[in-house]
Amino acid sequence: MMAEEMLELDEDTQKDKYLTFFIKGEVYGIDIRLVTEIIGIQPVTEVPEVPEYVKGIINLRGRIIPVMDMRLRFKKDFLAYTDRTCVIVIEACNMSLGLIVDGVAEVLTIPEAEIVPPPELKAAQNKYIRGIGKTGSAVTLLLDCEKLLNEKDESVLLNL
Amino acid sequence: MDPMMEMFVFETNQNLEQLEQILIQSEKNGVFSAEEINDIFRIMHTIKGSAAMMVVNEVAALAHAMEDIFFYLRENKPKQVDCSSLVDIILNAADFIKKEINKLDAGEKADGIANQLIALTKKALADLKKANEGEKTENAAEKGTPPVTESVEKVAEKPLAASEKIDMEETINVFQANLLYQDDCEMENIRAYTALNNLKDYIGEEYHYPENILEDDQSVAVIRQQGFNICFTTSMDYAAVSELLNKTIFLKELRLQQLPDVKEWSYWPKETASVPVVEKQLTDAVPEAKNAKKAEVKESNHQSMISVNVGKLDVLMDLVGELVIAEAMVTQNPDIQGLELENFNKAARQLKKISGELQDGVMAIRMVPLTGTFQKMNRIVRDMSQKLNKRVELHLVGEETEVDKNVIEHISDPLMHLIRNSIDHGIELPEERKKAGKSAAGNIILEAKNAGSEVVINIIDDGKGFNREKILQKARENHLIYKNEAELTDREIYSFVFAPGFSTNDKVTEFSGRGVGMDVVMKNINAVGGNILASSETGKGCVITLKIPLTLAIITGMNIKVGKARYTIPIVSIRESFKPLAGDIIVDPDGNEMVMVRGQCHPLIRLYDLYHIDTKVKTVTEGIMVMVKTEKMTIGLFADELIGQQQIVVKPIPAFIKHISATRGITGCTLLGDGNISLILDPVGIVNRI
What we know:
The complex is a heterodimer. By secondary structure, chain A is an alpha+beta fold. Chain A has helices at residues 2-14, 70-73, 145-150, 154-159; strands at 17-23, 26-31, 35-40, 54-60, 63-69, 86-92, 95-101, 103-109, 115-116, 129-135, 138-143. Chain A has a 6-stranded mixed sheet, with no helix packed on it. In chain A, strands 3-6-7-5-4 form a 5-stranded mixed sheet. Chain A is globular and about 45 Å long. Chain B is an alpha+beta fold. Helix content of chain B is 47%, strand content 21%.
C-alpha cells in the first residue's frame, strides 16, 4: 500500500520533467522517466555492419549497451568526443540504448500545456520530434524515444 | 500466476509424467503390479485432491473416476484385467488433464469438458467389475466397492475410513469441535496436542485434523488459520464437553456442535478436509517424481531434493560470470603487470582456483539428466506404433547423461520429431520386415553420450533407411542441388532432408509427411549451437546424430585481434592456427582467396575485409591464420594476432543492435579480462555468407 503510493508519488514528481541536452547548439529534451543514468564517454567497441550512427557497444558495469551518436543520427557532422561528451542511457521498449550527445544541460519542467506539436514539415528528422516545449523564451525539441528505438533507418539498411 | 497455481501446475505435470512411465511399463508387462497400482492410485488421488482445491472441477472429477478404477484393482485384485485398453483410457484421460494444466499454465481458464472421458472411465470400471463378477462376488460384496457417484466429497471421507472401529457402548454423543487459538499464542500445535490429551480420558473414538499435530511442520499454520478440528464420541453431554474444552488456555473461540450420529462426520467441512490430503502429498511429490523407483529411496531423498526456480539459477550464473571477469580484471590488472608480487600471485592463484570451482559448481546445478526427455519418447513410440500398426521397441542408452537445463528445453521437440520420423518413415510394417528378413518389431535406439564439451545423441533405427534416389529427385524438384549431381556425397544428399518443406512421404499422415519438421529440427538444434548429421544404409536403417554443446552460458574461446577490435572464436570449432607463408595463398580467377593446408584447399576470409575494420596487418605473412571447422567446410580466418585462450561468459547481443541490423556471423559478445568487449564469431554464420 505504502509502496504503491510512494511509487505513484514518484511517478508524479517525474511527470512533465525533461532532461535537456545539446546537439550542435540545439536544445533537445527527453522524458526523464526513460533515463536510467548519465555517464561520461566510455571506450566503445565497434560492431560491424550497423548504420554509421550506431557507434558500437559499451560495457556498463557488466551490462552491454549499444550507443548511438545523436549527431550522426540527425545527419549532422561528427564531432570528436571530449570530456564534455555524455552518454545518456535510456531504457524503453525493453531495450537499453546510450545516446551520445554533446553535453547535458539540465532538468526542466515543461507542463503538457506548453508543448506544441512539431510543424508538418517534410524534413525527415521531424519524425523523431514528439513536440516542441516552450520555457520562457527558449524552446526545447522533445524526442520521441520509442520511434528512435523502433524505426529502422531504411536508407542505411538498403546500403548494406 | 499465483504461487499455489504454479505449484499445482508443476506438481501435476510431474505426476502425469510419472503416471505415463508407469502405465507404459505395465502395458509392456501386460499386468499391473501391486506397486504400480498403488503408485497410480496415489497419483490420481493427489491430482484429484489438488485439482479440487484449485477448483479445476473437470480434472478433479476425471481423476476421481480413474482413481476408482485403481481402487477397485487394489481392493479386489481382479484376475481379468485388459491392461492395454485400460492404459489407453487412462492415457487419454491423462492427456486431457495435461491439456487443461497447460491452459492454466498459460493463464487461461481450464474450460475443457471431461464428461465423455469420465463416462468412458466409468464404463471401463463397470466392464471390469462385470468381467470379474463371477469369481469375486463374495469378496466384492464384503468389502464394498467405492461409491462411484460421489465426487469430490469423497476426499473428505478418506481420513475417516482409516480411523479405528467405533466402539458402540452405552449412550454415545457425537461432537465436532473447532478450536481457534488467540492470534499471538504461538506453538499452536503443542496447544492443540495438550487439548487433545486433556480430552483423552473422557472420549471414545476421536479423529482430529491436522492429523500429525507434532510431527508435521505445517500443522501450526493450519491450526492458526483454520483452527484445530476434533470429532469425537463421548458419554458426556454438551455442557460438560463445552466446559472441558473452554478450559483450554489461549482459546479464542470454540465452536462445538453435537451431531446426531457418527455418520454425520462425513459433513466434515470440505475445504479443510481436502487440504490435508493435498498438502501432505504435495510435499512428497517432488522427490517421488524424481525417483519413481523404490519406497526406501523416496524416503531417504525426501530432504535432499529441492526444486529451484530456473530464474534464480540464471541470476547466480550471471553473477558467477561477472565474478570470473572481475577476477581476471584484478589478476591481470595493467597496474601490476611486470611486477614481482610473490604473495599476490599466491593469493591470486587461490582465488582463481576457488572461482573455478564455484563456476563448476554452478554449472553442475544447472545440469539435468536427459532421463525425463528420453522417457517422454516411450509414450510417442507407443501411441504411434499402435496407430500405424507397427511394432517398435525403443531402447534408451545413456539417458543419465547430463546437459544444461537450457539445452534440454531446446532438444526435446527436435527429438520428438526425429523419433516420429523414424517410426513413420523408417520402420516398416511387420510383414514387410519379415519379408526383408528382419525381426517383426523394429528397433529404435536413442543413445546419448558425452564427447568432450559436447553431448552426442544418436537416433538409430533398423528400418528401411533413406531412399537416396527419392531424396535426390525431391531435391531436384525443390531446386536444392547447387552442384553437379555426380559430385554429391551421401552426406550432402542426406542433408537435403533438413531443408524447409522437404518430405519424401507420398501421403500426409497424422504424424509426418507435411514437410515441416526436419528444417525446424535443424533450426532448433542450430539455435543451441548444435549440429545434425544423417547417415543411412538403404534397407538397413539410418542414424541421425545430434551434436549439442553441454552448456550455452560459459564456453572456452580464443581471443583474436583485428585492428583495434577483439573477436572470440569458440575453441571447439578451431582446428589449428599458424603463420601462413606467401605460397600458401592461392587466388582463383574471380579473386577468391584460398589457403592451402597440407594439400587441402580451404576458403580464406580476411576478417578486416569482412567487417571493414581498419588494420595495418594486411599481408598474410604478418598475421595469423585460424582454421575454423564447421560441418559444411573448413575455412581460414585471417586475423592480426592471437591474444589467448579464455573462459568466456556469453552475453547476448543487445536487442537494439539485433533490431537495427542483421549482422551474421556474430552470435554474442563477452567481456575480456581488461573490461573490453569482444564479439563472439559464429563460424557457421560466416560460412553461410560465402
